[in-house]
């Protein structure tokens, strides 16, 4: 059985700012492709219990996301809260401005991402994956390879989370989701170029192939090469 990313993202929130963190968790799940356009969020009672927040807090968070254009509520027998088919476009703030705001946090996030994701690729390749886990990886890879420019960033994030999922560690999946959200605003400020996407897809194929071949060394090396390219592209646009 695949350890689902929503188990990691919909974990209990901290007690300090339950509303803000509930909004953050729901946005993570949407922006990182764990729940996709057209999907229904878990039932209110179940989701509130998983996040360990009151149903009032959850409703306020859902209302905020409704106002922002991410979800809609439907009534009736098959009602609930659904992710909108058309999501708001990412904020296209100047990349250099975002980098200045992030400050030293950029290098911190890149180092953390490298440590987490190379380790995840190695750990995934070191496990004996079930047929469901293998199919999950292959499906996420295929969806990313076929993604439009509009959907590419979200499905790329989903593939990287899938690699964490098949390690069997919800904590690793959660940590990867957090660092990805730190970097995504910067990545969204950089234009998606067809040649870069082709190269990225080739690297994704190499990573997944190494994992499915049970080759942890090759999986780690392929992931490191992939992340190094992304980091170099970020630094080039931010310099």
Features:
Four Helix Bundle (Hemerythrin (Met), subunit A); two-stranded antiparallel ribbon; 11 helices; 2 domains; 2 strands; Arc Repressor Mutant, subunit A; single chain; globular; 239 residues; mainly alpha; 3% strand
What does this structure look like?
- The protein folds into two domains: 79 residues, Arc Repressor Mutant, subunit A (Orthogonal Bundle), CATH 1.10.10.10; 144 residues, Up-down Bundle (Four Helix Bundle (Hemerythrin (Met), subunit A)), CATH 1.20.120.530.
- 33% of the residues are buried.
- The chain is 68% helix and 3% strand.
- The protein is mainly alpha-helical and 239 residues long.
- Helix 3 crosses helix 4 and helix 6 packs across helix 9.
- The chain starts with a helix and ends with a helix.
- A hairpin with a 5-residue loop joins strand 1 and strand 2.
- Strands 1-2 form a two-stranded antiparallel sheet.
- The chain has eleven helices and two strands.
- It is globular and about 50 Å long.
Q: Topology of this protein?
A:
Blueprint lengths: L4 H5 L8 H14 L12 H8 L3 H13 L3 E4 L5 E4 L11 H8 L2 H22 L4 H15 L3 H17 L4 H19 L5 H19 L3 H23 L1
Helix pairs in contact: 2-4, 3-4, 6-8, 6-9, 6-10, 6-11, 7-8, 7-10, 8-9, 10-11
